[in-house]
Write a structure and sequence with these properties.
Chain lengths: 82, 292
């Protein structure tokens, strides 16, 4: 039982941590490119901004799904209720 | 809620808040006999509210100088209309799909907005009503955010999938769509053996694509709202924990700060996710119009 709880705690940490790394790299790459592109062509800023927000939501989503699952494991643990 | 027996622990509090008001307790991951009454009722009421708000704007609309409310609704309608025009190049289909996009956006935004209400407000009222009706208030379950229920979001995504099938058949004809299923994305061949192999591979790829699109479409909205709801519960626990210990007197301050920051961030998230759900629905329906 303690073994399971410990492993689940480690798993939650890994899910959130690795997910955060991925989402951060994704947002950083996209944000950098957006700034570069809008410095080059300022007239495209509005159009690019909408697309950037959509993509930010898409990148964030995978991470947030991971966070939701990790939080579920942390508080309503389906493995430890047996 | 469990004041007389013992105060709920953090884990019990969260488990209680994650329990739907439903007809039978869910035991399997996929179980079509489970009906979540709370999601259905709240989603239905919010749908009516969304329709009523937009109807109110349309009824009072004037061609003269618009008021603030009318201007806001006009900006919204124009935004959805522009996105529909950019994604669907068929004026006949747009008569249905553009209003659909508007409905989806406003409805999902309203459902997501239930996250902004204090997490314990409606469940506490519900447990009082439940107690007044002569039941045990410990079993008064209620989840107020319909989009934090996987059934709702996957249901919406599935409705979009059915519309994609409908428009694929309508625009390309049953034969044209069947031809696309066996020839995209890898093309086809003159040689009958290669044509058969490519056909099987293409159909498999198409099935994977449809399933992946639909599941990720629903999961994306669900994941965001579910994580948001859980973080709000954790923040609520922070203030609740102060009552249990003397050393925690500063926790309510942290509760207010964390709650404010997360609420402000969440306003962005709920709008963005409603917008993304609408955009993806429009993009998928636009794809159904493109012949390969």
């Amino acid at each position: 039982m303690e073994n399971i709880l410990g492993l689940v705690a480690l798993a939650c940490g890994l899910i959130v941590g690795l997910g955060a790394i991925g989402a951060s790299i994704g947002i950083a790459l996209m944000g950098g490119k957006f700034l570069e592109a809008s410095a080059r062509q300022p007239e495209l800023i509005n159009e690019l901004q909408t697309k950037m927000f959509i993509l930010a939501g898409l990148i964030d989503a995978a991470f947030l799904i991971g966070v939701a699952i990790a939080l579920l494991f942390a508080f309503a643990n389906p493995f430890a209720l047996k | 809620m469990a004041a007389e027996a013992h105060a709920p622990t953090a884990s019990e509090y969260i488990v209680h808040h994650l329990q739907h008001l439903q007809n039978v307790k869910q035991t399997k991951i996929v179980d079509f006999s489970v009906i979540n009454y709370d999601s259905i009722v709240v989603a239905g009421l919010l749908g009516l509210l969304a329709v009523y708000v937009l109807w109110l704007a349309a009824r009072k609309a004037t061609s003269g100088v618009p008021g603030r409310f009318q201007a806001a609704v006009e900006i919204l309608v124009e935004m959805v209309d522009n996105q529909a025009k950019a994604n669907i190049h068929n004026a006949e289909s747009r008569k249905f799909i553009a209003p659909l996009g508007l409905t989806v956006f406003v409805w999902i935004f309203f459902m997501n907005f239930m996250d902004m209400l204090p997490v314990d407000l409606l469940p506490t009222i519900w447990s009082k009503v439940y107690e007044a009706a002569g039941h045990d208030p410990h079993h008064a379950y209620l989840r107020v955010v319909p989009t934090a229920d996987l059934s709702t979001t996957l249901g919406l995504a599935f409705a979009v999938l059915l519309l994609r099938f409908w428009y694929s058949v309508k625009i390309k004809g049953a034969g044209g769509w069947a031809h696309e299923l066996v020839s995209a994305p890898f093309g086809t061949s003159k040689n009958p053996i290669f044509a058969l192999i490519l056909g099987v591979v293409n159909v498999l790829m198409q099935i994977i694509e449809y399933v992946a699109n639909t599941v990720s479409h629903g999961m994306r909205l669900f994941g965001n709202m579910y994580a948001g709801e859980l973080v709000f519960m954790l923040i609520a626990l922070m203030g609740g924990a102060a009552a249990l210990s003397l050393s925690g007197v500063l926790l309510p301050v942290g509760h207010i700060i964390a709650g404010t920051i997360w609420t402000l961030f969440h306003i962005l998230v709920i709008t963005l996710q409603a917008f993304i759900f609408m955009m993806l629905a429009l993009i998928y329906l636009g794809q159904a119009h493109n012949a390969h």
